[in-house]
């Protein structure tokens, strides 16, 4: 059996301390692509943020962004699958987050919305190259929203995620992308669900998918994939569900693992 889809988280997986992808990593990813494998990213980043990072990786044209709420082909030129929060889900998310000590942030397209401007929000906009819009109500922006985010102390956010999953899993999909980020999306979102859709469009079996991740939001993807690889230095939860381990991103762990598979002719068509 050969792996036909390679799904890569970005932060903590493909990207380590440096914002640059090493020449070795690029060489291995290009070889995977040349053998016919579909090399994609599956990230919690917005599409815009993911594409900025991927400028240095021309072989990666398929992008799963917003925790699997959006799938794009051709370097973001074509959005081929997406799922939004309904107005009722947005209202429920905002109401629930308002009960916790967190900042509330909404995402529609590449734009970010807040009801209260803060130092964190301003800094986030500057780091990610996005404009932060101050609005009276996230429930009345008049645009489809991919996600609502709660930002706060890691202990608070961990409790928040647990509470949402235990009480509202039928209405909302909640996950942590970072220890201080709790994201709420449509129940149809998730990296695993987006990749399952991708498989259905490319006639690839789940057994032919290998996925790499390091964070809370990678757990479902690693469990779902034919082979789930956890990165050294990742959150403890990924080691509970993975099939194997890779070295850290600063050691080009993804490239080292894939090079071994290439040497065994286990990647491609």
From TrEMBL:
Lineage of the species this protein comes from: unclassified sequences, metagenomes, ecological metagenomes
**One Pfam family per UniProt:** Hydrolase_3
Q: What is this protein called?
A: Uncharacterized protein
Show the InterPro entries listed in the entry. Answer: Cof, HAD-like_sf, HAD-SF_hydro_IIB, HAD_sf
Q: Which GO terms describe its cellular component?
A: cytosol
One GO molecular function term? phosphatase activity
């Amino acid at each position: 059996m050969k792996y036909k889809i390679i799904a890569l988280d970005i932060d903590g997986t493909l990207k380590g301390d440096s914002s640059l992808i090493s020449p070795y990593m690029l060489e291995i990813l290009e070889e995977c692509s040349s053998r016919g494998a579909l090399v994609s990213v599956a990230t919690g980043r917005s599409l815009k943020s993911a594409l900025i990072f991927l400028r240095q990786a021309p072989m990666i044209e398929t992008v799963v962004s917003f925790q699997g709420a959006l799938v794009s082909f051709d370097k973001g030129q074509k959005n081929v699958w997406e799922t939004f929060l309904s107005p009722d889900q947005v209202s429920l998310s905002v109401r629930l987050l308002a009960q916790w000590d967190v900042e509330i942030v909404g995402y529609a397209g590449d734009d970010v919305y807040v009801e209260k401007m803060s130092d964190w929000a301003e800094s986030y906009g500057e780091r990610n190259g996005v404009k932060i819009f101050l609005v009276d109500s996230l429930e009345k922006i008049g645009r489809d929203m991919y996600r609502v985010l709660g930002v706060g102390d890691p202990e608070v956010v961990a409790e928040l995620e647990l509470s949402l999953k235990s009480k509202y899993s039928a209405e909302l999909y909640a996950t942590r992308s970072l220890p201080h980020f709790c994201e709420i999306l449509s129940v149809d979102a998730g990296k695993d669900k987006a990749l399952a859709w991708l498989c259905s469009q490319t006639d690839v079996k789940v057994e032919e998918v290998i996925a790499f991740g390091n964070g809370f939001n990678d757990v479902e993807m690693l469990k779902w994939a034919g082979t789930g690889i956890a990165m050294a230095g990742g959150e403890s939860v990924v080691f509970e569900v993975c099939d194997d381990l890779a070295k850290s991103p600063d050691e080009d762990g993804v490239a080292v693992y894939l090079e071994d598979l290439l040497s065994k002719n286990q990647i491609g068509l």
